[in-house]
Amino acid sequence: MDWDARMRAALSAARGVAYLHAAHSLAHGNLKSSNLLLRPDPDAAALSDYCLHQLFAPLSARPNAGGYRAPELVDARRPTFKSDVYSLGVLFLELLTGKSPGNASVDGDGAVDLPRWVQSVVREEWTAEVFDVELVRLGGSAEEEMVALLQVAMACVATAPDARPDTADVVKMIEEIGSGHGRTTTEESEDRSMGTPPAGTTP
């Protein structure tokens, strides 16, 4: 996946989760890359396996879901909007680093934690080492967008749930990152659906 495809995947995932939260007051509960289904339309994707947590054993009775699970879900509590945001952040880090959360480790005991690995690298001011080498080759403006998405991802994986942004804010932040590169924002999509031309265009 090139950078544009990864950005569209990140935005589609965020929009899908935001829709579940806002329109249906549902937490997905099982966000991971294998549950993000990309479609031929570059601006569309689908989320699968949402809300299946209600049918199975509590998270504490199952293995760490591949490194996507928020740290506060170590007990039997149900997934929340904020734990979904954490999982979104891990998904963004996966897109940026090219690393699976299940293969990242910063502990001698092999504990899986992609967010902490990224934090440790950024703390040492080796930010460029975080990114997938295939993305770094793009250079130019793509590097600025990568850093911007990294900042969004790190906000999403904050340890304290209250410190994480809401999904609607995550969507807005990602739209702003790509606004200068032909991606359609939520506001523009709504305008077009009502027959109103985007700002700066001539009817």
UniProtKB/TrEMBL annotation:
Residue ranges, annotated region (Disordered): 177-203
InterPro entries xrefs: At_inactive_RLKs (IPR050994), Kinase-like_dom_sf (IPR011009), Prot_kinase_dom (IPR000719)
SUPFAM superfamilies: Protein kinase-like (PK-like) (SSF56112)
Annotated Pfam families: Pkinase
Domain Protein kinase: 1-184
GO molecular function: ATP binding; protein kinase activity
Domain of life: Eukaryota
Protein name, UniProt field: Protein kinase domain-containing protein
